[in-house]
Amino acid sequence: MGSTRHDLRAEVTRSVTANGISLCCATYGDPADPPLLMIMGIGTQLDGWDVSFRDDLVDSGFFVIRFDNRDVGLSQRLEGVPDLTAIRDGDLRTLPYTLDDMAADSVGLLDALGIDRAHILGASMGGMVAQLVAIHWPERMLSLCSIMSSTGDPSVGQADPAIMELMRRPAPATRAGVVEAAVERSRALAGSGFPFDEEAARTRAAAAYDRAHDPAGRLRQQAAAIASADRTPALRGLRVPTVAVHGSDDRLVDVSGGQATADAVPGAWLEVVDGMGHGIVPEAWPQIIAAVRRNAARATALPGDVR
């Protein structure tokens, strides 16, 4: 991007109370620009959004808001040890909270920042949360971008069994072990279309560990995702400009999840990034940002006339 809009203001990081809990958020860009709220996936902190990707979004004319979901990073920790096997079988007695609660966190964050409506972009589990914001609070949405996510329909978006086995391994006990395990997961999730940057993956993993490491919080977020119901019927009723972005080589959330999302929401489309796995790689940023901008431009459509 040719401009230097992101040079005009420093990023502001603060803690706010949203939906009754403390959330750490970081805002960047010109507050006069349309706000773009970015929601991350399971166990991933706000720094999971690359700062250069953030800069490119600011250069594209957005006021960017990144934040730590509950139970991750510098946001508030919840309590409880979920029984994932029981939750998969429908027994929710050990479920600490739901994705609906996390969607309410996002709306509460907008309230705390004094923002009435925002473009909302969510990745992986964050895409599921963003979908729930659109379902329950459509009046707070300008547009929805659901990246490498799914609808909750168990017949779509399923993971490669080998990837699930890797993801379910318990967290190592040492910093070095945690970092190496994160690099191994990143390598396995990378698509075939772009080179895997091992050094960058290791740097990200080490920085995330040093900022805040809490496997229990990740487990509670995972439980919320497992317990989430099929959103397809509710998505069919949306009148929010929507794009689903997905990598063709995603082995954690199969591209059928993105296709199902686009098929469910009236007027939505699927933007496939050839060769991308489960991760937003720098080589794909121009295509993804172009899709975000194209979709955001539809926000001026009248209700019921999503083009």
Automatic annotation (TrEMBL):
Keyword Zinc-finger part of the UniProt annotation: no
Keyword annotations of the record: Hydrolase
InterPro entries tied to this protein: AB_hydrolase, AB_hydrolase_1, AB_hydrolase_fold
UniProt feature coiled coil, ranges: none
GO molecular function: hydrolase activity
Entry superkingdom: Bacteria
Protein name: Alpha/beta fold hydrolase
Organism: Phytohabitans maris
